[in-house]
Amino acid sequence: MKMYAFNKFLAYLLYAIVLGLIFKPDQVQGQIKVMTFNIRLDHAGDGEHNWQFRKSEASELINQKQVDIVGTQEVLKNQLDDLLTGCSSYASVGVGRFDGKEAGEYSAILYRRERFEVLESGNFWLSERPDVAGSKGWDAACERVVSWAKFKDLKSGKQFVFLNTHFDHIGVEARKKSALLLLAKAKMIAGELPVILTGDFNGTPDSEPVKLIINSGWLADAGKLARLSTGPQWSFHDFGRLAVEQRPLIDFIFVTDHFEVMSYENIFAQIGNTFHSDHNPILVELQFN
Q1: What is the value of pTM for the model shown?
Q2: Mean of the per-residue pLDDT values for the chain?
């Protein structure tokens, strides 16, 4: 009987191993890998950190991590083209913030074409005139845009809304008002649907705009909910030039309670003489409840 029990145990173990090989974690129904990634605009003054020295690695990271949806920030049109060339299985949603077309930085959303269908999409500006392309709000130094899409997950059949943005780096009032406007608009767009919000919020977890989002009782910081967390506690490092103790966490992924956060990865990696960006890409794996 002992030998029979042992053989039965081995059979179950082999079965579990085979299932693990066939059904890889990223293939589990209802799981979505989401990244927020401020890629740093293509700026000639960046020298060895210029986009031309990082673009292949940025695309490779997205592909290698098998990210399903990426909320990007500071993306110029040529950089968006580079990302879509390097990530050939992805499409994008979003517009340039200057004119609502191709001028200026995008807060583009990249998504896997075979995984998602875009049911609706749009953009609004973080200003007193959110429907006016290129409008600048309150005390902001720059035009700021939110790009969003209502997706259908072709694997699970679930629908959800994804929003991505970049708050102003100067305007204190603008960041506060942007958080309030973003919450109101997101609720109007999503209704009862699950929501994922990504972005560079130019504020730490204890800053007013970030606290407004978290204290809304509607969106939660995925990093605080994750079963497993890896990486540093900061996200902006200025291409490694900022002292470690001065590096802030300003890049976030927020989710509604329709999701369980399986993992959170804050990615800091040096690539030759540079990095993926002056910000860390942040990756979470979500599971629909």
Answers
A1: 0.90
A2: 93
